Amino acid sequence: NIDTELLRALPKAELHLHLEGTLEPELMFALAERNEITLPYDSVEALRDAYEFGNLQDFLNLYYQGAAVLQSEEDFYDLTLAYLARCAEDGVVHVEPFFDPQTHTARAITMACQFRGILRALEEGHKRWGITSRLILSFLRHLSEEDAVVTLQQALPWREHFVAVGLDSSEKGNPPEKFQRVFDQVRALGLKAVAHAGEEGPADYIAQALDLLKVVRIDHGVRCTEDEQLVKRLIDQQIPLTVCPLSNVRLKVFSQMSDHNIMQLLKRGMCVTINSDDPAYFGGYLLDNFLAVRDAIGMSKAEAVQLARNSLTASFMDSETLTQHL
Ligand code: ES4
Ligand code: ZN
User: Fold this and answer.
1) In CATH, what number is assigned to the domain containing residue 223?
2) What residues make up the domain containing 28?
């Protein structure tokens, strides 16, 4: 097995990370106080104790409730900068974070406030730690396609400040098909498409995301193994999967880490990557996810190098930056 410090030193990119999911209980309480909001918990410990999820929806309920403390540009800045500080400790050289504008515009927090805070922190993270980034705007799939269309319109003034659009939230019952028209608009704007698929939803949602939304990466995708033809296609076309091991165990996609299929997929030649998803809720940042997989399943130095390399090649960084890191 690869040594921890070697893993930390490997240049890695994080491609599946929700900024709202990096809101640590301590910061949640601090922002609640700053914004004069009362949380339904007495303490940081009581809040952490509530992080026991039976499924994706249990988690999403707490995640949306927590995000309500984010009110000002400064709040989005503090949230994003705290995440980048953790990245620097873990040897993360490039990040492609998601944010969910609809979670905030629904509370009358403007798109401008969100973009300004996040973008200013990404610049600061580049100055302080040399971390490069590409931002991804994500639609909430439990809302209507019309709502996503409005959200895309509202984001147009920042068109040059994000590179892709994603699709997250409650997967089952909200297939990629529901968002076909808005993703046509996304791609017509020259933006890349990605989507959460095959986390709780069936393998068919992965095929739909590829065929109907024309996504260039699949977020999660671990249920692809339920369709052997699809597995072959993902390998043939080298479609990257952004896998989130601790998330999958916490949300009961796999009952324990030793049951996780990520290393089997890697051994079959799929372009899998390791990511943290919502680290404040799932018990670990990027390096913690690598270590959890190593300790439960095993990870050789060559496998770790391949996983880190996949994260760089599957990223949206420019070719010059890629060459520097490889
Ligand atoms: C998410 Cl783990 C997961 N799945 C779907 N949507 C999400 N948003 C934040 N985390
Ligand atoms: Zn996710």
Assistant:
1) 3.20.20.140
2) 4-325
**Backbone φ and ψ of 100, nearest 5°:** -110, 85
Closest CA to 80 of 129, 40, 37, 42: 129
Proportion of the chain above pLDDT 70, given as a percent: 100
- Token readout for 87 is 């990245």
**Closest atom of ligand 1 relative to the 278 alpha carbon:** 10
Identity of the amino acid at 45: E
pTM for the full model?
Answer: 0.98
Residues annotated within the binding site for substrate are: 278
Q: What is the ipTM of this complex?
A: 0.97
Quick one: angle between helices 301-313 and 286-297, nearest 10? 140
User: Average pLDDT of 111-134?
Assistant: 98
Q: Report how many domains make up the chain.
A: 1
Q: What is the pLDDT of residue 241?
A: 99
Is 18's C-beta closer than 6 angstroms to any atom of ligand 1? Answer: yes
CA of 248 to the centre of ligand 2 (A): 10
- Report the separation in Å between the CA atom of 139 and the middle of ligand 1, taken as the mean of its atom positions: 11
Cα separations (Å) of 135 from 28, 80, 121, 181, 200?
A: 22, 11, 12, 22, 25
Ligand 1, atom 7, lies closest to the CA of: 169
Atom of ligand 1 nearest to the CA of 200: 4
